[in-house]
């Protein structure tokens, strides 16, 4: 049987030290529940008493009855004091947690400069603090801050710190690459030395990504004897971040044969990573290994042709194992295989020998040349493919729209849109205000359609992006607008391109609602859904 490892998630503590990341108590509780469902073994909740959010978190998390061990973070007692009287240690005990993470100095340089005390007093601070927490029945994880830098500067003292922590009863001795500057071969060699000296405590590893080596260093430590891996979801953390558990977990389990999570839990990895990203309101890189939307995306026609025969030709694992999925992208590099794969994925019958297939490939390449990008706008692509296949009916006919934007001194800008459509032969003319031109257009269009299509009440815009395609023309440059919309169950993206940002926005907006309306019909009942709603739209 393969060796079991322990996953220690510090997203809620170390992860929140990353720039741009701020979590409320409610946010932290939601993430804690999600991490528990994933199956991590320890969840570090924060620093008890340091702020009102952490105080509230530790109080409310007890009500969740999580399987993971909730852990409180704190430092050793102050120099020249008594552990029993240390306010920080008392707050850790009062947090009501099952385990504590105690950070202490292991680099003599830090003992002298940061603590401004002696090496002997630092050892006493570590021993006293751990022994006190153990007497209170706590599981203690000792985080040796700057351990690798300390070892390289003074190996005898760094090892003495770990021996003193073990002597005091620490359950785990965690080696921290706090500055993130250690190389993988150094990590392996140093962990191997410590592993040969430890008898009762177990070893953990905590790495930072300042050299883009946090994941590699964590794996090197495991190979040398570490059994607990500390890290964060999506690699969040101070400076360049912490070790990314979204990469570490599948690497250890799928590539190296360690027991980390149950297979059904591993399937939750992608969903958990994206959930945490949404709650933290932090952009998740599409090319993030294992869990990114592009992790199993294929664009080149030769690649797509190969994966349709056998996905192992260009995929190192089956993406569903980690809860992700294979995606075929359609762009100017697309060949017939890409179109056929996307059509199959969308349930659209496409004959590879049919002239319409070759025509839509040519059309997509031409549109990409104009600035359209369908890699991130699957809904617009699906509308194109269904139009080419003759599978769409006319839902409404665009006639015109007008915009009024008024700015008066001392008053906010007022945007008003006027939209004229035909639905079932009847002319519909509506007007609506919004907090901007696009919002006003959205409101006016919905106002015209809502009587005929009440399901639009469930749809809302969740994201809006504008990209300048050629900045040499300054304010006259062509722009690409991407709109993400969602309902209670799904989200979809649409694209528009124009030299006028309002026209590009209208195009993406109309595609978004067209797609939503089609989604409300039976997916198998697409016959004769042909649209002339594009109006201003060029494709």
UniProtKB/TrEMBL annotation:
Look up keyword Amino-acid biosynthesis and say if it applies.
yes
- Say if the entry is tagged with keyword Transferase: yes
Q: Which reaction does it catalyse?
A: pyruvate + acetyl-CoA + H2O = (3R)-citramalate + CoA + H(+)
Q: Output the superkingdom of the source species.
A: Bacteria
Q: Which residues cross the membrane?
A: none
Pfam annotation, one family: HMGL-like
Q: Where is the Pyruvate carboxyltransferase domain?
A: 5-267
Cited InterPro entries: 2-isopropylmalate_synth_dimer (IPR013709), AIPM/Hcit_synth_CS (IPR002034), Aldolase_TIM (IPR013785), Citramal_synthase (IPR005675), LeuA/HCS_post-cat (IPR054691), LeuA_allosteric_dom_sf (IPR036230), PYR_CT (IPR000891)
Q: Which UniProt keywords apply?
A: Amino-acid biosynthesis, Branched-chain amino acid biosynthesis, Isoleucine biosynthesis, Transferase
Q: In which pathway does it act?
A: Amino-acid biosynthesis; L-isoleucine biosynthesis; 2-oxobutanoate from pyruvate: step 1/3
Q: Which NCBIfam families match?
A: citramal_synth
Family designation: Belongs to the alpha-IPM synthase/homocitrate synthase family.
The name this protein goes by in its record: Citramalate synthase
Q: Which organism is it from?
A: Paenibacillus vini
């Amino acid at each position: 049987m393969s060796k079991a490892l322990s996953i220690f998630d510090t997203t809620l503590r170390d992860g929140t030290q990353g720039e741009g990341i701020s979590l409320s108590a409610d946010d932290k509780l939601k993430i804690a529940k999600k991490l528990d469902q994933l199956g991590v073994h320890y969840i570090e909740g924060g620093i008890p008493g340091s702020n009102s959010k952490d105080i509230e978190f530790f109080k409310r998390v007890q009500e969740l009855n999580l399987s993971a061990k909730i852990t409180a973070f704190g430092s050793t007692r102050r120099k020249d004091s008594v552990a029993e009287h240390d306010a920080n240690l008392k707050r850790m005990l009062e947090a009501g947690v099952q385990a504590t993470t105690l950070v202490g100095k292991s680099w003599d340089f830090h003992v002298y400069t940061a603590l401004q005390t002696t090496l002997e007093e630092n050892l006493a601070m570590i021993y006293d603090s751990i022994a006190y927490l153990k007497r209170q029945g706590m599981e203690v994880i000792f985080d040796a801050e700057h351990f690798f830098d300390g070892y390289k500067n003074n190996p005898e003292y760094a090892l003495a710190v770990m021996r003193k922590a073990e002597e005091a009863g620490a359950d785990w001795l965690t080696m921290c690459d706090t500055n993130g500057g250690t190389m993988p071969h150094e990590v392996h060699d140093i962990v191997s030395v410590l592993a040969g000296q430890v008898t009762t405590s177990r070893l953990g590893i905590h790495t930072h990504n300042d050299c883009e080596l946090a994941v590699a260093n964590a794996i090197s430590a495991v190979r040398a004897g570490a059994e607990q891996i500390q890290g964060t979801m999506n690699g969040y953390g101070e400076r360049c971040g912490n070790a990314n558990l979204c990469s570490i977990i599948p690497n250890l389990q799928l590539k190296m044969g360690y027991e980390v999570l149950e297979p059904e839990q591993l399937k939750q990895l992608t969903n958990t990573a994206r959930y945490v990203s949404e709650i933290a309101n932090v952009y998740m890189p599409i090319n993030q290994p294992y869990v990114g939307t592009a992790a199993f995306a294929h664009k080149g026609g030769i690649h797509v042709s190969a994966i349709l025969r056998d996905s192992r030709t260009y995929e190192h694992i089956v993406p569903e194992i980690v809860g992700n999925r294979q995606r075929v992208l359609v762009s100017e590099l697309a060949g017939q295989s890409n179109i056929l794969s996307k059509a199959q994925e969308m349930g659209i019958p496409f004959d590879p020998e049919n002239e319409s297939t070759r025509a839509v490939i040519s059309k997509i390449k031409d549109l990409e040349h104009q600035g359209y990008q369908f890699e991130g706008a699957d809904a617009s692509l699906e509308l194109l493919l269904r139009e080419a296949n003759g599978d769409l009916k006319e839902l409404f006919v665009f006639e015109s729209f007008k915009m009024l934007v008024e700015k008066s001194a001392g008053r906010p800008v007022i945007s008003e849109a006027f939209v004229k459509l035909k639905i079932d032969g009847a002319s519909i003319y509506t007007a609506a205000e919004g907090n901007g031109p696009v919002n006003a257009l959205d409101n006016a269009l919905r106002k015209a359609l809502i009587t005929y299509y009440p399901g639009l009440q469930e749809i809302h815009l969740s994201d809006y992006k504008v990209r300048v395609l050629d900045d040499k023309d300054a304010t006259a440059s062509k722009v690409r607008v991407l709109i993400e919309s969602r309902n209670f169950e799904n989200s979809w993206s649409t694209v528009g391109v124009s030299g006028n940002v309002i026209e590009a926005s209208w195009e993406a907006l109309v595609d978004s609602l067209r797609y939503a309306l089609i989604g409300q019909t039976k997916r198998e009942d697409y016959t004769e859904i042909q649209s002339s709603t594009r109006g201003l739209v060029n494709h």
